[in-house]
Each structure stands twice: as C-alpha cells, then as structure tokens.
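Incident log, support desk, overnight shift.

02:14 A customer reports that sequence design results differ from what the structure should imply. Their input is reproduced verbatim below. On-call engineer (initials T.W.) acknowledged and began investigating.
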C-alpha cells in the first residue's frame, strides 16, 4: 500500500495524532515571540506629543531648532518612557533607522533559515531540525539578555531568525505529514491558533515588563518547556518513506495505530517496496530549491507563490509594526489585532467547502480595500473616529491572517513530498523579503502618513489578481515524488512525458514512416489513458 492508504489503516486523525499536533503546534507561540517581540522593544517613538525628547546640547539650542537638528552630548527621555532598546542605545533622530534594521535582521535571519533549514530538513529529517532549532532559540535568546553592544545584539537577532525559521517551517510541515490528507488544513490552522496566543502573551508581558531585558527573559522562560519535544515527537513517516526508510516508516505508522487503539497487526502495515537500486537512489537523491524551477508546472507555481508570500508577509507584519500609528493604547491595540485573527481559524471550513483559490482571492481583496481606507478616516485630537479607524485595521489584519493560514495549506498541496519542505522554505524566504521591507514601509509614515497603509492596500490587490493563476487543490491527491506531479490544466504528466521522450531518443532503431506513425499513435493513446 502507499502512504495515504496506510493512514486508512492507522487512522487519519486519531487521538495520538491529536496529541502530537497539540505538542508540536503549541511551539508556534514561541515562534510568534521572536517574530514580533521587537514591536514593544522599539515603540513608542519619542516625539513632541506624548514623549517629548530632550538632550544636553554641545552648543546652545536656538529658538527655531529641534532636538534632532542639533548635536547632542546625551539624550534625556521623559518620565514614563519605557526602558527599551531605543533608550538603551539612543536610537533616535539620525539613528532612528537602526530600529528598522533591528527588525530586518530577524527577518533576514528567517530568510536565510528558510533556505538552509528547508534543505537540512529534507536531508536529515523534520525531527532533528526542530530539536536543533529549539535549543538554538533558547540559548541565543538568553545571551541576548546579557549583551551591552548593539552590533552584537543585531548579530544575535539574526541567528535567532535563522533558528526561528527552522522551527516555524519544519513544525508546520511535520504537522501536515503526521495526519491524513483530509486533516492537513487542521494541522496548519492549529499552528496559527498558537501564533495568536503568542501575540496575546506578547502584549500582556510587554505591558507588565517595562524593562526590555526582563521582557525577553520572561518570554524565554515561557518557551523553555518545549525542550521536552525531544522525547515526544517522531520522525515524519512520509519523509522516511520517500527517502527509502520503509521499515522505519512502517514502525512509526504502527505506533500511530496502537496509540489510536486500532486493532491492527504489525504485518498489516506494509508499504510498497522499491527495488534495492531504487531505495539506494532515494537515499542518494537530494533535491534543492533549484528543482522547483526545472519543471514548467512547478516554475509557474513557484514564481506566483513567491510573490504572494512576500506581499502577505509585508502586509501582515506591516500592520503589526504600525500599531503605534493608531490612536490609543498600543498594548491593547496589539492584543486586539491578535484577537482579530481568531475568526481566521474558521477559514478552514470555507476552504474545505469553496476551495483554496477563491477564498484566498477574496481575503486579499478585502484586506487591500480595508488598508486603503485606514489612513483616510479622520481622527481628531479628542479621539473621535479612532474606533472606526481601528476597526478597519482589524478587518485588514483578519483577512491577511486568514490568507497567511491558507497559503501554508495551499503550498503544501502544490508540491510533491520530496521537495515540499524546500518549497515551503523557498516561499518563506520570499515572505521574509516582505518582512524585511515591512519596518521600513512602516517608517514611511513620517514622510506621508497614508503611505504605509496605501502600500499594504495596493499590494493586497495585486496578490488577489495573482492567485487567480494558480490551480485548485481541494480534494486533489498530493504527489509523493516528482514523477507523480501533474499539470492541473492539462492531461499530461510532464516528468513522465520527459522520461518517455528520453526512452524514444535513446532507442537505436531504424524506423520507417509507418513504424514511426504507429509508435506515435500508441504513445498518444497511453497519454490519453493517463
């Protein structure tokens, strides 16, 4: 039997898989910590309204000069301003751009990690990548608390970004590979739920811990229990099977059956064997992100998905990083933006009914429209209309969060198992480009207040248009290898067609016109049957 038929025997979503899903996807809240903790370590920005910045000038300040227009010996922050990295390293005035750099360093690390950890996960397995990522995150975050140099702080944030990608991407892929095909979306959405919980915890801890070092340390202690995943999670049976470790895959599946209380004998779980040469080839064959561009079908999907992921990340993180631009308590608004994502969990019901593509297009369109409206809602100094503005921001965040959930499901169904982690990693790499740009786009508000949300709105509309060029994957079988890949718009299997052409080209026969016509007719009939 193949791997999908094996889940019919052991259970598609038994109690053991539910337990594994809970343990693995809960760690996504730790991913959320590292992706967004800098929001409260860099905001609010010292300004003339709420937190007037003063300094000890080297030369006397003239009446028409501001603090940032003179050379200062040191800066004086107003009473009540939190002890964050801005006040720690004076990231104000001409050094304000370093705030965006600190966020971009994390995203740059995630970009590199998306490539490196994607390859490592496909080469050495999901489990090893996850465990190494968790230990790296815990240790590097602890060292961050001790640093007194900003350059070293940025270097550690980069390393943390690499490990965060290894955990976030691989844990999502593992979740989709330990359940039956019908429950892949449940696995992805459960991770998204954990991410929301992580955001709410961030706002609470940020409000309670006004010192950035105690803030980081508290978040790291919350993530400490995830080291126990070392004794909990198994290797992905799909990864084992596709890499030729058939016996090991059968053992994992049998353990699923036993813990799911299925009355199954070990001998009943027998996966289709390959010849010794094929098994050796499976172990030696390594795929890279370049393989995503070798076949026409994958090339088209990869380019479109790459752009879509970049836009999704730009809008998602951009809205979160622009929280201080909205009138009100930033801790409360950030928590509301997190809670607004809860309805996105119900997106799983819509995509199972109406398909991935249609729902994704609608989400991008609504998110784009809502963001365009946000800066044009007038908010007076007394706070009039501020709740209307916040509501439009919440709608935008809800829809882009739903889109983020869907594309994780979508991308895992568009690619074969042998390159799936490479695909998710490459798409996540493109998303990090959007994440790197997000803090700089958010800072455009100092030039033109409407610029950030206008950028989010226009790019959201572009993503909606691009999604229409992708195939629908609802209730479609997921290929295990490249040879199982099909073009959704046509009857031919590109890989098999290429193999058949190679066989014809390598056949040393002298054919007359009649023989050639007969072979062409036979091949055409063979393709029609496929």
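02:41 Re-run completed on a clean worker. Output:
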């Amino acid at each position: 039997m193949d791997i999908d038929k094996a889940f019919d025997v052991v259970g598609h979503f038994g109690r053991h898989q539910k337990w594994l899903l809970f343990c693995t996807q809960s760690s996504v809240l730790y991913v959320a910590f590292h992706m967004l903790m800098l929001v409260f370590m860099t905001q609010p920005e010292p300004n003339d309204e709420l937190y007037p910045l003063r300094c000890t000038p080297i030369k006397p300040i003239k009446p028409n000069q501001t603090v940032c227009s003179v050379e200062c010996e040191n800066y004086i922050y107003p009473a009540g301003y939190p002890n964050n990295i801005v006040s720690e390293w004076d990231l104000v005035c001409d050094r304000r751009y370093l705030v965006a750099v600190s966020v971009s360093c994390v995203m740059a690390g995630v970009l590199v990690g998306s490539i490196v950890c994607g390859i490592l996960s496909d080469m050495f397995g999901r489990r090893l990548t996850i465990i190494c990522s968790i230990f790296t995150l815990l240790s590097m975050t602890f060292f961050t608390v001790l640093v007194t140099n900003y350059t070293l702080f940025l270097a550690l944030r980069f390393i943390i970004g690499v490990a965060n990608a290894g955990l976030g991407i691989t844990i999502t892929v593992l979740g989709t590979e330990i359940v039956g095909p019908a429950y892949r979306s449940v696995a992805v959405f459960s991770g998204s739920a954990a991410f929301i919980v992580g955001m709410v915890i961030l706002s609470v801890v940020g409000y309670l811990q006004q010192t950035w070092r105690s803030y980081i340390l508290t978040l790291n202690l919350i993530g400490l229990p995830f080291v126990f995943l070392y004794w909990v999670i198994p290797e992905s049976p799909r990864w084992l099977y596709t890499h030729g470790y058939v016996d090991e895959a059968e053992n994992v599946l049998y353990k699923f059956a036993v813990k799911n209380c299925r009355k199954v004998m070990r001998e009943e779980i027998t996966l289709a064997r390959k010849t010794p040469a094929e098994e050796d080839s499976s172990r030696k064959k390594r795929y890279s992100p370049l393989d995503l561009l070798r076949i026409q079908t994958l090339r088209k999907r990869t380019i479109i998905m790459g752009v879509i992921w970049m836009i999704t990340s730009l809008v998602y993180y951009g809205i979160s990083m622009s929280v201080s631009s909205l009138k009100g308590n930033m801790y409360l608004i950030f928590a509301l933006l997190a809670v607004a994502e809860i309805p996105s969990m119900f997106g799983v019901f819509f995509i199972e009914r109406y398909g991935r593509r249609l729902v994704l297009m609608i989400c991008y369109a609504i998110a784009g429209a809502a963001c365009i409206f946000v800066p044009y809602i007038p908010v007076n100094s007394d706070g009039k209309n501020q709740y209307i503005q916040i509501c439009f921001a919440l709608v935008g965040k809800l829809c882009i969060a739903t889109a983020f959930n869907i594309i994780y499901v979508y991308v895992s169904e568009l690619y074969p198992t042998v390159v799936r982690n490479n695909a998710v990693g490459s798409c996540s790499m493109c998303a990090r480009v959007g994440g790197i740009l997000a803090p700089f786009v958010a800072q455009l508000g100092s030039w033109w207040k409407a610029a950030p949300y206008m950028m989010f709105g226009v790019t959201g509309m572009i993503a909606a248009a691009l999604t229409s060029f992708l195939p629908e994957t609802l209730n479609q079988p997921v290929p295990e290898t490249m040879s199982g890949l099909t073009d959704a718009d046509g009857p031919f299997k590109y890989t098999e067609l290429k193999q058949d052409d190679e066989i014809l080209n390598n056949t040393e026969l002298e054919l007359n016109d009649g023989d050639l016509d007969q072979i062409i007719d036979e091949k055409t009939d063979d393709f029609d049957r496929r």
